[in-house]
């Protein structure tokens, strides 16, 4: 009952040596993750940061809570004052702005289009 020579032979490759083929799949997985997940997320964050820094008075925005309003005042570097209804103003953190509906000039034109022609206000 001796062990056959096939089982006694060492596995292919140098024992204790470094095999590059074991690391190649990990590198490929990281590259795929970078291009499919990390890079698009960084691009999205950069676009949001630019949009938030370019907000100004008169812009119509949507907050991350779903509130739609018009910026009436930029209180500070991190806060905005929004008018969400006639005479109803709230303060909002600048970072909580989720989307920009229209710039100030476009928002005024949109409101003018919705007014009836016989309205004298």
Properties at a glance:
alpha+beta, 121 residues, single chain, 5 strands, five-stranded antiparallel beta sheet, SH3 type barrels
Q: H/E series, N to C?
A: HHEEEEEH
Q: What is the number of strand segments? A: 5
How many individual helices? 3
Major pleated sheet: 5 strands, antiparallel
| pLDDT averaged residue by residue | 83
User: How would you classify the helix and strand content by structural class?
Assistant: alpha+beta
Question: How far do the termini sit from each other?
Answer: 106 Å
User: How many separate structural domains?
Assistant: 1
CATH C-level: Mainly Beta
> Which shape, going by the Cα principal axes?
rod-shaped
Please name the CATH architecture: Roll
CATH topology label:
SH3 type barrels
β-strand percent reads 15-25%
Provide the helix percentage: 25-40%
What is the strand arrangement across the widest sheet? Answer: 4-3-2-1-5
Low-confidence blocks of residues: none
Radius of gyration: 30 Å
């Amino acid at each position: 009952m001796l062990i056959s020579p096939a089982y006694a032979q060492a596995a292919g490759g140098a024992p204790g040596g470094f095999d590059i083929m074991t690391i190649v799949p990990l590198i490929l997985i990281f590259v795929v993750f970078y291009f499919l997940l990390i890079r698009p997320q960084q691009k999205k964050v950069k676009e949001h940061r630019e949009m938030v820094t370019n907000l100004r008075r008169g812009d119509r925005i949507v907050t991350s809570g779903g509130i739609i309003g018009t910026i009436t005042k930029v209180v500070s570097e991190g806060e905005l004052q929004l008018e969400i209804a006639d005479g109803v103003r709230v303060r909002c953190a600048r970072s909580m702005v989720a989307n920009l509906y229209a710039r100030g000039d476009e928002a005024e034109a949109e409101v003018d289009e919705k007014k009836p022609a016989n309205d004298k206000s």
